[in-house]
Amino acid sequence: MQSRNIRTIALDTLADLAIAMADPHDPVIYYNPRLLKRYGPEISAFVLAHEEAHIWLGHRRPEGGPRGEALEEQLRGWELDADCAA
Q1: Phi and psi at residue 74, to the nearest 5°
Q2: 3-state secondary structure 20-64
Q3: Each residue's pLDDT tens digit in the chain (86 positions)?
Q4: What angle do CA 79, 26, 5 make, to 5 degrees?
């Protein structure tokens, strides 16, 4: 993956290890440094690469998109895609 201006913001109140906000004009990865530290540098690097992959792959929930099981299936596919790209 090529580098893009993706801001990373530490947020120790975040419940997840990290999340991506794939806004095409201002992509951001929020991460919890306290939680990432528990898992060590290898897992932390993978988690951040996974979130960056969501941005590169354009994973944004469109308004009026799928709902229910169709949404869940789409999200599972996105998670697998981001894992593979990371």
Answers
A1: -60, -45
A2: EECCCCCCEEEECHHHHHHHHHHHHHHHHHHHHHHHHCCCCCCCC
A3: 445 689 999 999 999 999 999 888 899 999 999 999 999 999 999 999 999 999 999 998 777 778 899 999 999 999 999 999 99
A4: 85
Task: Round to whole Å and give the CA distance between 49 and 56.
Answer: 10
Q: Is 12 exposed, middle or buried (0-12, 13-18, 19+ CB in 10 A)?
A: exposed
- Strand-pairing partners, residue 37, are none
Question: What are 73's two structure tokens?
Answer: 């299936």
